[in-house]
Each structure stands twice: as C-alpha cells, then as structure tokens.
C-alpha cells in the first residue's frame, strides 16, 4: 500500500507539469491575439450614459460615419509671407484632391500674422482605426515647411493616432521591463543560480494564461468587457508582482519544511497546508477588491476590475500548482548552494524585524502616535495636487499633435481650435444652431451633416482654448440651453470623464471597504482587527496622495492628475495593503490560538513573517515602479503612488503601527471573537481553527513555525 501511495505521489507532480504544458500550448496562440481586441479609442473609455458618448455613437450613424478632425498649423517666427500662404494652400489642395473631405479647408490667420490654421475634416476612414491612422500619416507626409516655416498636424484625430502609437509599445516594453526587474530581485533574494528561475516560469505561465483567457472570454464567449492597452499593462504588472509575492511565501515555507521533513513531496504538502490558506485569502481579497470596479460607470475602470481579477487568480493557480510541481521534481538541489538539510535547523541570527518589533513594544503609544502624525502630515500635501490632466499633457514626451495644440493656444487665444460637437434632432437643428450661436462663450457655430437617423451635427467653436475653465463653462452652458440635444467632442469627453470619476469614487470606494471588511471579519473572526487594518491602508492611501501633491508638479513636472488616479490608487492600495496585513494578523492569530500572550503573539508574528513579507513588498513595489518607464503621465502617476504606498505599508504601517496598536489593544484586538475573552478559551479554540499555518502540527518549544526570510539559507 505504501509503495502504491509513493508511486502516485511521484506521478502527481509530473501530471501537473504535463497539464500545464498542454494548457500553455493551447493558450499561446490566443494570448498573442489579445492586442486585436484592445480598444483604445476615446469612446471606449467613456461612460455609456454620458452626453459625449451619445454624440460619438450618433456620429457613427451619420453619412460617412465617424469624422476624423485634424488641424494643420503653419507658423513662422516672424509674419508669414504670401509665398508661405501659397505653399500652404497648395499642400492643402493636394490633400483635398487625394481624400474625401467634408468641406474644403479654409485658412484662418492669427491676429499677429504668424500662424495659419486649416481645419480638416473627413469621414473617409469612418470608425476604422487603421484607416484613420493611415489618413493621419498621409496628411503628415503631404505637408512640409520651407525656408524657416514650420508645419504641425494636430487635432483630435492626430492626438488619437499618437496615443495609440504609444499604447502599441506599452505591452512589449512593460513585459520585458517587469520580467527583468523580477529576475534581478529574485536573484538577490535567493542567492541561487537556479531557484530564481522557478518563480519566474510560474508568473510567465500565469501572464500568458491570463491573456489567453481574457481573449477567449471576449471573442469566444462574447463577454462585454472593455480591454485597453492601459488595462492590459496594469494586469501584466499585477500578475508579475502578486505571483512573485505568492512564490516568495510558498518557497520560504517549503525551505523550512525541508529541514524537518525528509521527502520533498511531503514537505511541499506541509508548506501548502501552512501558508496556503493565507495565500488564498490574500488573493481572494485582491480579486474581490478589483471586482468592485464593476460598479464604476467609466468603461476603462469597470474593464480593469475583471481583467485584473483574472490576472490575480491565474497567478494564484500557477503558484499553487505549477510552482510546487517544479520544486518537488527538482528536489533539494534547486536551493544550491544554500541547500536546506533535513534535521538541521537554520543557524539563528539577529532579525531586523525582531529589533523593529522590540522598539515598537517598548514605546507602543509613542510609536503609534508618531506614525499616525507622520502619515497625516503627508496627507495634507493632497491640497497641493495639480488640477485635472489635460489630453495634451498626457504624454511625457511631446508628440506632434500636442505641439500643434500648444501653438494654436498661443496664436489664437480668442477662440478654440477644436470643435464642440452638438447632435440635435433634425427638426430642431435650426433652432439649436441659433441657440448655440447666442450662447455666451461661443465664437462660431455652423451646421454639419444630417443623417437618416433623425439627427444633425453642429460644429461649435468656443472663444476659449480647449480644456480651459472658460471652454468647460461654455460646454456646460450649451448643455443647459440645448434641451433634447447632446453636446460632445474631445473637450466634452474630458468633462464627462471628470464627472464620472467623481461619481464612481462615491460608489466604488465604500463598496470596496465593505467587501474587504467582510472578508477580513470572516477570516480573522474579529471586528476590531479588520477595522484596524482597513483604517491603516486608508491612511496610507491618503498619505501617498499627499506625497503626489508635493512631488507631481514641482519635481516630476506633471501638469495635472488624471481623474481616474484617486479611485484606481485607492482600489489597489486597499486591496494590496490588506493583502499584507492578512499575513501578519493571520500569524498573530495563530500564535494567540496556541496560548501566547498578546504582546508575544504580535512580536512573534512580526519576527517570523517580517523578512519574507518585506521581500514580497519590495518585489511588488518594484514591479509597479516599472510603470515609470512608460511615456504616459497617467501610468507614471499610478505606478508611483502604488509603489510608494506598498513600501509605506510594508515597512512603516505593518511593522510599527499595526504591531504597536495590537500591543495596546491586547486581547481586545480579537473582539468579539473567543480569543478576546480568556487564554484558556483561546487554547481550546486552536483545534477548531481552519487557519492554523501548521495544519495539525502542535507547537514545540523554540519552534517559530513560520517562514524564515526568503534570503536565508
């Protein structure tokens, strides 16, 4: 019987490996097609209920479909000459002859005579992104400056083309950079020429599987899910960061079990019984937190929720199956040169986290108050956050479309350079046109296309530059005056994005807090401990937002904050911060279940989990820091806030504040559960807990029963 059991156990890792090879072979072709379903157009980010979304949808039904709007900008430092205008007219005529434009472009000269603006509109590409991009490139190839005259192609169509060009480079750049960062950190952590490769294989398999699964859900099962380059980029970082974290915890526990269990297979079973529940709980918390984004009205935010959750769950499955199978098959030698020997305890050494815990234990009140005051002071910097990020400020390096918009803003301060689109019922179009022309802040308005769908398009130009407070006020006045019509266009889309993000924050943030609290209450069987953990991560979020206010504009030169940043950073920091809190509090609860006094339980939990969780925190922060290499301000802001927040949570909040608060609260931290009542009840409860990290193994004197820091041999 024992021989048959041994054969089955030896065969199981091979079966798991064979299954993963089959899964990856099946998934690889679909993973490569994920880019085909990415939607990076403005309409794909907007809420379905917004005016600007309705305008974009109705424009697609007008003759020719969706219009591509460009602006050709000719400029000379001195005044333009007659020869300059002749060159510009000839180039514009060439474009008009080669393409089907909605109207002959007419030159608009600036008052100082330095600039000529030619609005160009066409429905030739329709809603086809490739055709639109080809049209923009054709126009750019057809224009050129001569003898000191410069020419730039701007407008919404050009800006969208430049934006998509950036998104096309995100995926590959992010994958390579993230893999490189994780590789370096794993090598430094494990100090082994081989061991680092095993977690990397696991997270790579998870990343490929998640990409294929998302493609299959959208294309194969028709799931209504917005997938953008930005969403996929964040998911990639999350898979590598979370997956590596889970690997660090499992490998550290497996290394410990190999010292007391001879056979790798049985040691791995003990390791998974020990840390598996905490890993499951933490990944479940992150996934549940991300799924709260489904309540967001903004398409880009609601799409990120399930995409991120799929990535986290794929990372979890890979780390609980593929990683253990590879480690068992390779045996102890995978840890070379720091091979854990059976029956030989690791050499004791002074723990940094024991020293940190000791300092918190000596003065818990001073430590807690000082930490809260420090984070509160940092949070005050949020009052210095710059305003909302404008489209032209979204890039870290200036593309041609943004350069054109800046020239237009300087040369035509008395009027807007991009149209505000108004869709009015055809039988009300004339009245709407007159109303628009008489609206305060409107420079000009003209009638555009009329469709068979009963709607007509009006083009309205504001007196103020795009995305300025003056133009925003004009858009609001138009919406108030034009009852029954829709007001849209690029600037109106930004207004709707701001309003929708504000609405989403009011709904998603409380929902996320309620979901996380419920999970923690069920996991820790307490009310006080979950409230403490959630309060701590909310304080971390507030402090990093304050840090952003102190650094974004003065140091990094960011001209604004993307409206989605407060919500997305809140979701990720709360979910990931609580994730680490679970590991600490779960271990603290385990110590309490064995009868340890509250102070000893807190110090033991910090000492025994500190090293490995610190390694995990550094890896996760480093993966989000990778977003700083991307050329989009929004992703740089998001990556910075999450990375710094994770580091604050790892080295300040969890180490000092949570530990000192637990010491001060004593057994009340487990109220109203049985652990809050008396030590004898706690001891008796240990046999009923499903969360003991050692399964059924009883405590032994001097047995720390926890993962040692990942770098120890």
Brief summary of the model shown:
The protein has 713 residues and is an alpha+beta fold. Among the domains are: 191 residues, Multidrug efflux transporter AcrB transmembrane fold (Up-down Bundle); 70 residues, Alpha-Beta Plaits, CATH 3.30.70.260; 191 residues, Up-down Bundle (Multidrug efflux transporter AcrB transmembrane fold). It is built from 21 helices and 8 strands.
Describe it.
- The structure is a single chain.
- The chain has 713 residues and is of the alpha+beta class.
- Helices cover 62% and strands 7% of the residues.
- Among the domains are: 13-45 and 192-349, Up-down Bundle (Multidrug efflux transporter AcrB transmembrane fold); 419-488, 2-Layer Sandwich (Alpha-Beta Plaits); 499-689, Multidrug efflux transporter AcrB transmembrane domain (Multidrug efflux transporter AcrB transmembrane fold).
- The strands form two sheets. The chain has a four-stranded antiparallel β-sheet, with helices on both faces. The chain has a four-stranded antiparallel β-sheet with strand order 6-7-5-8, with helices on both faces.
- α6 packs parallel to α8 (229-260) and α18 (565-593) runs antiparallel to α19 (598-625).
- Residues 681-713 have low confidence and may be disordered.
